[in-house]
Amino acid sequence: MNIFKASKFKRKEYEDDKKAVIDFYNTKGYRDARLTFDTVYKQDPTNLIINITVDEGRKYYFRNFYFNGNTKYPDSLLSKILNIHRGEVYNSKALEEKLFSNPNGGDVSSLYMNDGYLFFNIQPMEVKVDGDSIDIELRISEGPQATINEVRIIGNTKTNERVIRRELRTLPGNKFSREDLIRSQRQIIALGYFDPQQLDVVPIPNAENGTVDIEYRVTEKPSDQLELSAGYGGTTVGLTGTLGVTFTNFSLRNIIDKKAWNPLPTGDGQRFSIRVQSGGKTSQFFTASFTEPWLGGKKPNSLSFAFNRTDIVSFANGLTNPSTGHYYSTGGTVSWATRLKKPDDYFTFETAITYAYYQINNSSYLPIFNTGTGNGDGVAHNLNLSLILSRNSLDQVLYPKHGSSFMISAQGTLPYSLMLPSLRKLNYQNDSLSPEVKYRLVEFFKIKFFADWYTTIYQNLVFRASAKLGFLGTYNQQLGVSPFERFEVGGDGISTFNILGKEIVRLRGYDIISPTSPPATIAGATIFNKYTAELRYPISLNPSATIFLLVFMEGGNTWQDISDYRPYQLDKSVGLGIRVFLPMFGLLGLDYGFPLDHVIYSNGSASNPNGKVNIILGQEPE
After folding, report:
1. According to the 3-state scheme, what is the secondary structure of 536-594?
2. Structural domain boundaries in the chain
């Protein structure tokens, strides 16, 4: 198959291409460029030849700019925003962008329209052509400032209108602002309840009384998700499977209203999810969460609750012998988040309190409790506080084309071993001190930083760059770093071991990578780095089936101690993948990663040079 074969001739596209040729010359200073001759004729019965003759003309340059009609802003400020200097190559497209349509909002029209001048108009006129230099007069009609009269929302059939209105920046009585209009559009898209391709924002000006009505025309789309899978692990393991549901537009206040159940009460923008996972005879997991994004309904203060329960059986010699131990954990989180106004209102600050109760009975998943110094049984309590500062300016949720997001968090417990008299007198360097005593009260502090950045390269082709860093520390050097809350890099990132007091960071192309010379009884590292670069291209942006392809390059690694930390000593991989978002089933994905480095895992096996397949279900793992 020849992918470079000639395309079919289409008359309309041919005419458009001729205009594009002239437009290209205009951006390079050739203001008088024109096509003097073009012809299309047959070479043979199946092929055409196109001949085009271009008269480029003289190359021109900008010389002087004059502003006329401006009373609100001085020439100096307008010249600074225009940012085209004497002697620059004449470029009609760049001039138009600086006056009307800079994608970052730094154009002259935005300056006026963000201050209410909806009826503003500016016309560039060439007033003098002297050789190869052009003088341009910018004739401005400022008009009156417009006040927002009425804001209407049309098309919401399920979502309550107040859920949309509380996200709007355009309020009746305020001055019109194009920046507020664009931000309101972004906030509606970020809700995830409406089709971003069909969202239409229509200002309806009334020049006679200096007001403007604004209509937001939305189209509802399915946003709830169902996760369902099943399998059979043989007679030893038995049936395995997962059942999970997420209601993204839930309504708790209507739960007693029988008429609102369709199938569950919806429309208030709350999020409720529940998930049950069974590994047959080996493990059971249960998680549930609820989020109210606007507690009280007046300010964007979010309140969330989450609960999880884990039961994992440890077997001797694989799965051939009877159970030799168990790992239980029960935990919950309460978090409160608020949207900040400074430095800008893309920032969010969150506070979370988490408690986890661990019961370990000869478990192979936390072998430090099976050192022989104790009886193999242990109980641990993990009560910690998290402070999280984040910023998110992504233009949409499913397929971001531009914007960025970052998060920096500080998490920690109290320094029990330095604070409580009964623990301060312990000799933590004594080998006979059992882990059940040392780690009964889990103590640690943890710092994490995540960042994502998106930009459009051409049309819908998007580049994404990402960085993730993490550090786990201790208050008491004699006690050492906690065996809980550690990092593991590698695998698919959705392993059930996330619940085992560890954080799994995905690294495509590899299994779990162990730090250099880790302690034999402690799994996981105290430091990790991961960097990712992706190119994404959509096959379909239809909300009923959003599909895009990606190619990636990433690298990551873990370290056991700060003295061993080498931030650029990474295990790297390349690969490709696909993402499919179906409203009922959420995100489905497949990645095929090829390792570029030879890695020996803790079990003695090596990384597969032929690559590794990762499956994504429900959400994109870290």
Report:
1. EEEEEEECCEEEEEEEEEEEEEEECCHHHCCCCCCEEEEEEEEEEEECCCEEEEEEEEE
2. 11-55, 61-141, 147-217, 340-618
* Overall average pLDDT of the 97-103 stretch: 80
* Domain 340-618 of CATH type 2.30.30.700: no
What residues have CB less than 8 Å from 244, skipping those under 6 apart? Answer: 225, 226, 227, 228, 273, 274, 275, 276, 277, 618
* CATH classification code of 147-217: 3.10.20.310
Cα–Cα distance for residue pair 476/352, rounded to 1 Å: 24
Distance CA 615, CA 435 (A): 37
- Is 417 within 8 Å of 398 (Cβ atoms)? no
Q: What is the CATH number of domain 61-141?
A: 3.10.20.310
For residue 357, give both structure tokens: 């109760």
- How far is residue 483's CA from residue 439's CA, in Å, rounded to a whole number? 8
Q: How far apart are CA 36 and CA 14, in angstroms?
A: 16
Tens of pLDDT along 419-465? 999 888 888 887 778 888 888 999 999 999 999 999 999 889 999 99
- CB-count exposure of residue 301 (10 Å: 0-12, 13-18, 19+): middle
Q: What's the pLDDT band for 513 if we cut at 50, 70, 90?
A: confident
* Matching fold, domains 61-141 and 340-618: no
pLDDT of residue 495 exceeding 60 = no
Least confident of 85-99, 348-362, 596-610: 596-610
Per residue in 289-327, pLDDT (tens digit) is 999 999 988 889 999 999 999 888 765 545 455 556 778
